[in-house]
Amino acid sequence: MNVSARNCIKGTIMKITKGPVMAEIILDIGNGIQITSVITAHATESLGLKEGKEAYAVMKSSEVMIAVD
Amino acid sequence: MNVSARNCIKGTIMKITKGPVMAEIILDIGNGIQITSVITAHATESLGLKEGKEAYAVMKSSEVMIAVD
Amino acid sequence: MNVSARNCIKGTIMKITKGPVMAEIILDIGNGIQITSVITAHATESLGLKEGKEAYAVMKSSEVMIAVD
Amino acid sequence: MNVSARNCIKGTIMKITKGPVMAEIILDIGNGIQITSVITAHATESLGLKEGKEAYAVMKSSEVMIAVD
Amino acid sequence: MNVSARNCIKGTIMKITKGPVMAEIILDIGNGIQITSVITAHATESLGLKEGKEAYAVMKSSEVMIAVD
Amino acid sequence: MNVSARNCIKGTIMKITKGPVMAEIILDIGNGIQITSVITAHATESLGLKEGKEAYAVMKSSEVMIAVD
Question: Mop domain: which residues (chains A, B, C, D, E, F) (predicted)?
Answer without folding.
Answer: 2-68
